[in-house]
Every structure is written in structure tokens, then in C-alpha cells.
User: What shape does this take?
Amino acid sequence: MAGVTIKDVARAANVSVATVSRALNGHDNVTDEVRRRVAAIAEQMNYSPHAAARSLSSRRTHAIGVVLPDLYGEFFSELVRGIDQVAREHGLHLLVSSYHGHREEQGAAMRAMRGRVDGLLVMSPYAASAGIVGDGGAAGLPLVLINSQDAGEGAVALGVANYDGAVAMVEHLVDCGHRRIAFIAGPDDNFDAHQRLSGYRDALARRLPGTEPLVLPGDFSESSGHRAGVELLARTPRPDAVFAANDMMALGCLFAFTQAGVRVPDDIALAGFDDIPLARFVHPGLTTMRVDIFELGARAARMLLARLGDERESPPATPLQPQLVVRESSAPRRGADSS
Amino acid sequence: MAGVTIKDVARAANVSVATVSRALNGHDNVTDEVRRRVAAIAEQMNYSPHAAARSLSSRRTHAIGVVLPDLYGEFFSELVRGIDQVAREHGLHLLVSSYHGHREEQGAAMRAMRGRVDGLLVMSPYAASAGIVGDGGAAGLPLVLINSQDAGEGAVALGVANYDGAVAMVEHLVDCGHRRIAFIAGPDDNFDAHQRLSGYRDALARRLPGTEPLVLPGDFSESSGHRAGVELLARTPRPDAVFAANDMMALGCLFAFTQAGVRVPDDIALAGFDDIPLARFVHPGLTTMRVDIFELGARAARMLLARLGDERESPPATPLQPQLVVRESSAPRRGADSS
DNA sequence: CTGAAAGCGCTTACAG
DNA sequence: CTGAAAGCGCTTACAG
Assistant: This one.
């Protein structure tokens, strides 16, 4: 049952292996009669070509590799789904690899893909990841970077307009009448987190000149958001709005407030970034910037396919624009404009 | 940068390709000096072996394939994460493939894995999927089935004790004092859904003899749960508890109740199955049966590795026992025991 | 339109 | 301990 090779089919069909290969791959230099006979026999013998052998001689694996920091949670799940969608449209296989946050393993993961894939989608959200492209880690494979610092060198990269998104959120909060807007930052070495922080700082300086930015540390986890929330409540004067660099931290913050009997948005407004599914379900609903992660994955995959020559034209490399989603957590301040 | 082959390394190191192969693969029949030299040169040339070539000659791909119905949502994400964890421990690559609910493509997906992977993890949650193993679709690859009907024939399968879980939930609801317990069923052709339904029926017959089971149709989606919820409210007498075959439907049902001003659990109790993350966050918290999906994936992967000879002993094939998680949605009935 | 042969980049008996 | 050679299962110029 196993291990039927092209030779077996050739013998059964009374033709050469070359002819079998041509017939099955739809080359036009085969008689229709032969093609049909070969196809029937192959089918009946349950033949399917050995991918490794095929890759070796054709120098094409018909697979793409996805190298991610982790596999946990909605973000990666959606990203992979978007990539998968495009891969399927093109009949490509998907090899996923997560380096579980061990940055030093990222290069190895990429190199180990040689001979398995035709190209690589890599997410390396570290502030300083300029090395990866030249790394040769890519083993010379075509590469598209996702949510990563642009690494120059003919590197193609796709990301989210984090800066613009953060600016938009600050403007929304200011428009709601909030004046003391605190920010819970993401991990120090995270590229997206940096951009969001910059957006916050700049928008604040522009819209509320003279106001001191108030930035608390965080690491994108719910618990760090909780810690920040507790700390914020101890401040005097207390901020009247909190903008967390991602939704998970905003939720942690929300629970801290709820536990302390502080009402959102009446006592303090709250906003996040990402629009994870939970954001819609918590009470009050969380105002946030929606990032279309599925689309991010799909578009990055298309960019890679374009490099591989599988798709006519590449989508633009312009960052995906997040979208403001206003829910209850950021309702306008009553009796606004008090400093 | 690209395409450094073993030949290049051999030339640079002044040895044969055989020696390079042996040195790099840690065979013991190489001088330490040679091994070091070869390793250094390979490193410096940024050599990494071509996986397809290696697979072809060694008849080992060091990869396993995962064939799933879909990639959407928490369930598959957690499953893949569990599999990935074990794969990494063994230095194996992961090929994922979803057939997007197109059952007819499942066989093709499995066959296309030939030459890419050493074994297959397949989830085929259809009531009648007996064909897959013999299908030869497996191309003779070792196979472990997840959440699938046992297909005999030396097939190894791992699943969740859905029946037991459903029984436990019904008993819990009965213990809370509920007497008219409705059930929202899952898809007709889904194996897990069937088992849960059987558990409900049997437990009901045993604990509340004479009671008519009340089963509404559903398809595991939130919207089908919503529909069922609306319909249930129109019934007289109205049930005093609803057990949905999965959490998503329970949530849909919850929203239907909330919209209608019916309070949970005061007016009607509610329970689900799976313990998705949302279950903890909705209000009231959803009582449910927790299924450890990560563990399901990890254990299935270990079973496959055992078949491949990569792991000494296989974990038992006994189904994973789900765990009752009591939250607010199923509080004991006030003034119990009214029929 | 078809076949014989070389070659893809490795691994692994087989000699020495 | 090391090398020359065969072979893994395909694809693809090259002849005819």
C-alpha cells in the first residue's frame, strides 16, 4: 500500500517514468490516450509522488514556511489562518515553526527550513532585529517580514500602522474630554510597542501641549495590565483615561478597576489596541483600535508569492491601518473640559 | 549566500562528502580533529543541509503533518500548540493543513503529505469517517486520529470522553435542583456532538426517569445557539436549565436570554462544554466541562512519535476526561425540587 | 510524442 | 577512520 513509486506506475502502464511524469504533471507533449491510461493506473495504484524527490529535482517545494515567536493566542491563530487561506488558493503547503520567544533559536529555525520551503514569512517583533535578513539564516530563501523592524537590504516587510493608530486613539480620548491620559506601555524590546508609545507621546504633545505624559511599564500580559491599573489608582491626581498598548493589558487594568470599585467609564475611561474577541464581550465593552490580523497574514503571504513568481503583482507594502472601534469604556466625560 | 551544498563544504575542508555527512551528523567514526574542522567550515560557510535531499536518502523527513478540518478559533489553535510543543522537544517540523470543512479534500491533503512527513495527525470529526485509515490516503504513513470515530485496522485514536462529560453535566444540573433540562445539539455528522447527546439522553433517563428529553438542533455556532435560545423561551412549560453541546452555542443562548430580559441563572440555568476562554469572562460566568485541548494535542503527538520509534512508550489511548467547572450560570435552583 | 540518461543533494553500505 | 560509489524518487534537457 505504501511506497508506490513512479517506476511502479511506469511498469504497469508500459511506458517510461519520464512519460508518467509528463502525463501526471499535465505537460502537453503526451497523447491524450496515454495521459488517460497513466492517470487511471496511477489513481488505481493509489500513487502519489514523493514530495522530497520532486523538490530535489525540480527545485521547488510548493511549501512556504512561517516562523513565529510563539503560537499562543488569538493573534497568531488569526495570522496563520490568513496565511493558510492564501497558501491554499495556490496549492501550497504550510510549515509552521515557533521559537517560543527564544530569539537565539530563530536563525536556526529559519535555516532548518532550507529544502523544505520555497520562501519564508518571518515575524520578529524585536526592536533590534536588523540581523535576520542578512543572517543568511534565511539560507538564501525569499523572505517577507511581518511586524518587524524593516531590515533594509531588499527586505520586504509588512506591518501595522501602530503609530497612526495610537495617535488616533489619543485624539479620540481627548475629543471625549479627557485630559490626564495615562499610557501602559508594551515590552521594551517590542517594535510595535515602541511605535504605539511614540504615537501616544506625539499626539499628547500636539493636542495637549504642556501636559506631562504618564507612562507605566507593561509587557502585553493581562497581569502587567492589572499591576499598572492598581498603581494608577494610587496616583494623585488620578488620570481620567488610560490607554493600554494592547487589549490584554487593558483587560487586566479593567479588572483592577472593577475590584477597586472604580467604574469605567464614569470614573475613568479605558482603551486598548488590537480588538481581540474578548474586547467585545467584557463589560463595559472595550474601546480599541482594530487590527485586521487575518488580512495581515493574507497580504504578507501574497507578497511572498509575488516574490516567488506565483502571483502577478505584489500587494503594496504599506502598513495596515487599524480602525478605531468605540465601545462603552471610553464614553465622553461628563461636564467635560475640567482640566 | 544561498545554495551551499555538502560538496562545497567537502572541497573547502579537503575531505569527502561522506566524511562531511558523518561529521555533521555526529557519527562516531570520525576523528575529533576532522569533526571540528568540518563543523567550523560548515558554520563559516553558513551551510545547512538540504532537507529534501536528506529526506530522500535517509527516508526520514523529521516532520509530522497535521490535517485539520479548519484552523479557525481557540480549539485548533490550542491543539496545534500542544502538538508543536511535543514536536519541538523532538526537533520535528510541523506541517499544518486544513481542508476547510471540505471533506472530500481531506484524502488529498493526506496524500499530498507523502515525502514531506514521517507521520500524520488527523482530525476527522465526522460521524462516518471510517474510510480514512484504509484510504491509503495516508499513503502508508503512520497515523493517529484525533477526535474521530475509531476506524479500526490498527488505527490509533485519541479523543475526549464526551459521553462521560455530558453525563457529569446533567448530574450537576439535576443536583442543582433542575428538572426540565433542555439540550442544544451539535452538528448531525459530528462525532463528538453525538457522544454528548447520548450522554445527555442516558443521564436524563437514569436520573429523571419519565422525563422527556428536549433536544434542539444546533451546529456548534454562536448563532445556532441564539436561535435555540429564542425558541426555548417560547416553550411552555419553559425549561429551567439548558445544556448546550458546546460553549459557543451556550453563549449564543445566553445573549438570547439577556436580550429577552430573562436572567441567568435566576430564571434559567445554563451550561456549555469546552471551557473556551470566553466562558470565564461573560456575565454570568458559564458553567462548562473543561477539555484540555493542549494536552489532547500533545498526547496525540506523543502517540505518533511512539509509532515512529521516537519515543519509548506511547501514552495510553484512553480518552481525556473533561472536568466540571462550576460558575455562576448554573447556581442551585431556589426553592428546589418543584417538578 | 516518447525514452534513456543525467542530475538534484544527500546518506550509507562496501572496501580498504 | 576515510573515500568512491550506489541509490533515494523524481524532473528535464537531449536525442530520436
In short: Residues 15-19, 22, 29-31, 34, 53, 55-59, 115 of chain B lie near DNA strand D (CB under 10 Å from a C1').
